[in-house]
Amino acid sequence: MQITGEITKILDVEEIESKSGESYKKVLFVVETEEEFNNLYCFEIFGEDKVDKFIQYNKVGGVVDVDFNVKTNEWNGKYFTSLSAWKVFKAEATDDF
Known about the structure:
CATH architecture: Beta Barrel
């Protein structure tokens, strides 16, 4: 899936430690589209390289195209849905993150 919109917020980068002791980076960012309804999306990016490149090339106010997958996980009978961005680039250019 893909949307185009303006980055309205970039949250602080999080470091997550897995059960095995490995450390991962994650960042959440919010994109607002010009659609009348359902125009606010909060995406997540995982992985040190991807997070670092996203932070380096994207700022609040930038207009971007976001390619993403909808991901749902189950934990203890509860379901959690996230929007996992796998490609972010400026709408007027083709710079991948």
